[in-house]
Design a protein that fits this description.
The protein is mainly α. The chain has one domain. It is 61% helix and 5% strand. The chain has 14 helices and three strands. The protein has a three-stranded mixed sheet with strand order 1-3-2. A hairpin with a 3-residue loop joins strand 2 and strand 3. Helix 3 crosses helix 8 and helix 6 crosses helix 10. The longest helix is centred in the first third of the chain and has 21 residues. The radius of gyration is 18 Å and the shape is globular. It starts with a helix and ends with a helix. The relative contact order is 0.15.
Length: 284
């Protein structure tokens, strides 16, 4: 499992210098989006961020303990290129986001604190274009950027920092500190695989995903299209996702409402269907 995590990190680092610059839409409102979606400023240190990443690495190891990595360098590189172009616009520039595909037919995606994002092979095969891939990756980036797992675990220090308490807990050498850390990881994994996020966190992540995608030049309706595809899908592979997320009808509705409210013109933006299909052909 540790070896799988190391491979995951190495593949991500190798692609870091190849990430293209995002296609930012030149509108004043876009800058307002970034301001609105930025996480409230907190008194966090470099050590706090480092320990958040360490915590996320443990959660990522649990994910990789359940599903193996999909070992295809071309697909891994492509997903990292798309993911990193989106992460450039996130509210967490201090994080180095890493992306990987899990070798399972199940349809889902996962985010671990600190910048670890996973997409299943089954989810990738249900997508029709790069904009849909961007929408799903942006949704997971948003969970990390807005600290949904860390905040839900109520890990707070006396000074009010949600990560400072986490840093002390992880750094603690006592048996009690180690047990508390392990329990927190267990709760985070349960959120990802069983209980799911709060409804308001899913709404937040879907909205921010649409905005991140738009800032990178992707069709904002892509995530709506993907949800419509999954809504029509039958069987256990799709039910894995519906078990931990709000209904597709709800998510489609609130996304369309947000797109209309922001006045985004989908016709100006891209889906990149052809190059996505070329990569998708390599997925078996």
């Amino acid at each position: 499992m540790r070896a799988a995590v190391s491979l995951f990190i190495c593949c991500a680092v190798m692609t870091m210098l190849l990430v293209p610059a995002p296609t930012v839409i030149a509108k004043d409102e876009d800058q307002d989006w970034r301001k609105r979606e930025a996480v409230a400023k907190e008194e966090v240190t470099v050590d706090d961020i480092s320990e958040e990443i360490r915590f996320g690495r443990e959660v990522a190891a649990r994910i990789l303990g359940r599903y193996p990595l999909y070992e295809n360098d071309a697909v891994m590189k492509y997903v990292n290129l798309v993911g990193r172009s989106l992460a450039m616009n996130s509210s967490r520039p201090e994080l180095e986001f890493r992306f990987a595909v899990l070798n399972t037919d199940e349809i889902n995606a996962y985010a671990a604190p600190g910048g670890y994002v996973f997409l299943t092979r089954g989810a990738l095969m249900r997508m029709k274009d790069e904009a849909e891939l961007a929408g799903v990756l942006a949704h997971e980036i948003s969970h990390i950027a807005n600290k949904h797992v860390v905040r839900e675990l109520s890990i707070k220090a006396k000074e009010g920092s949600s990560t400072a308490g986490l840093a002390r807990m992880i750094g603690g050498s006592s048996e009690a500190a180690r047990a508390t850390f392990s329990q927190a990881v267990d709760k985070a994994v349960d959120m990802l695989f069983t209980s799911g996020y709060k409804r308001e966190d899913e709404i937040d992540a879907d909205r921010t995903a649409m905005q991140l995608g738009t800032l990178a030049g992707y069709d904002p309706l892509a995530l709506v299209r993907y949800f419509e595809t999954l809504k029509a899908a039958k069987g256990a592979k799709a039910e894995i996702l519906t078990g931990t997320h709000p209904s597709f009808d709800d998510r489609i509705s609130w996304l369309k409402t947000e797109i209309a409210a922001e006045g985004v013109d989908p016709g100006r933006l891209q889906s990149y269907k052809e190059r996505f299909e070329e990569v998708q052909k390599q997925v078996k």
